[in-house]
Amino acid sequence: MVSLITGKRLRPFALLLPIHRLFSSTSHSIFPNATSHFDSQSSNPLPNQPNVDRETVRETLSCYSDDWKRAFEFFNWVETDCNFTHTTETFNKMLDILGKYFEFNLSWDLIRRMKNNPYSTPDHTTFRIMFKRYINAHLVNEAITTFHRLEEFDLKDEISFCNLVDSLCEYKHVVEAHELCFLGKNKELGFNVNDTKIHNMILRGWFKMGWWSKCREFWEEMDKKGVKKDLHSYSIYMDIMCKSGKPWKAVKLYKEMKKKGMKLDVVAYNTVINAIGVSDGVDFGVGVFREMRDLGCKPNVVTYNTVIKLLLENGRVRQAYSVLNQMLKNDIAPDVITYHCFFGSLGKPREILKLFDLMVANGVQPRMDTYVMLMRKFGRWGFLRPVFMVWKKMEELGSSPNEFAYNALIDALIQKGMLDMARKYDEEMLAKGLSSKPREELGTKLVQEEPHTCKEEPHSCKLAMLIH
Known about the structure:
- By secondary structure, the chain is mainly alpha-helical.
- 63% of the residues lie in helices and 2% in strands.
- The protein has 25 helices and two strands.
- It has helices at residues 2-6, 17-24, 34-41, 54-63, 68-80, 88-100, 104-115, 124-136, 140-148, 158-170, 174-182, 196-209, 212-224, 231-243, 247-259, 266-279, 282-294, 301-313, 317-329, 336-345, 349-361, 368-381, 384-396, 403-415, 419-431, and strands at 444-448, 461-465.
- α15 crosses α16, α16 packs antiparallel against α17 (282-294) and α22 (368-381) runs antiparallel to α23.
């Protein structure tokens, strides 16, 4: 067991299996008595294990990113029982998981622990995570208050402000970001917010909102204010043109950039390849791909993914596989998105499962949405056996299923008439505190409350679980 955890040459998620089995063996007493929970399993679950690998800890936390209680139990247990000293990186990973489930009080407790630990001082990433999780929960005021608290950590600076603005734009609170930067709320910051970087963030924020007219208005406003547009500005606006259904305008911008003598980087080329591939055809997109290589701009995994996606969308599966093989020859490792492109386009369960096995063999760990995508697809086709094969692989690789995975499995079981098994998994996910869909087949449905039973909200509904 120890060799499994400390072995360096194994795939990262293979290292997690011994720890995963310890956690999987029970579903009670998860928090907060981590030590007693593990003692109940074995007097020495990991004997002679004082030096747990940092990467193993990080990967194990990633494995339990959809189960914050188990992740937090492991986080505390590995510190107390394995004498592991958490670093800023592992603290930040745990903070991200807690924030995902809105456990902000616990998050601040962790930050206080970090502050008292010389090996885990809070850094800009720590509070970038807090900004991201607060704003994702639409707690904008709390995120801004956190920024003002950063003087306590000597981190109230331009980097933190940019992280705050970027998080606001990423999670569709660009209106608040715009007010914070340009409407008189920035006087006490002590640094300039009228630079290109901030404007690029706001432009990208309008892009995330899908407000195309506002994007165009802000693009023109940058010219009026004399803000210098850089390569990143053009890359964002080309992407806006593509997503708004005007790829030919992105191509026009590309030609404008070439006339100005701007040297495109790989990010800009990725956008251009997609724009030309959509507007003029996949062969022209592949032509730009060859051009970038000839000009000495090395393609990255996103470049190859863009080309593969264009080929698959045009039914050229063999050529897409050829590009995948080319990636491997050029030492550019495919990522999970590469395989998602294929999974979305292939139409044979056996071929998909073969590629899924290749993905795992190549050391690419499936994400939870990978499992959900495949189970939903097989379920729609009426193939139950592949659904269970994916579910089993998910458990073997140490991933804890979330509500979407459970619902995909339950829907597939109901479709095949296996109601008893579907009900079992429905009850299991409810016991874990996950949200189940109301299903008539299982005797669950939405019930309208009687108006007189709720004076404050007479038209509210509640989910009544009516198990027959």
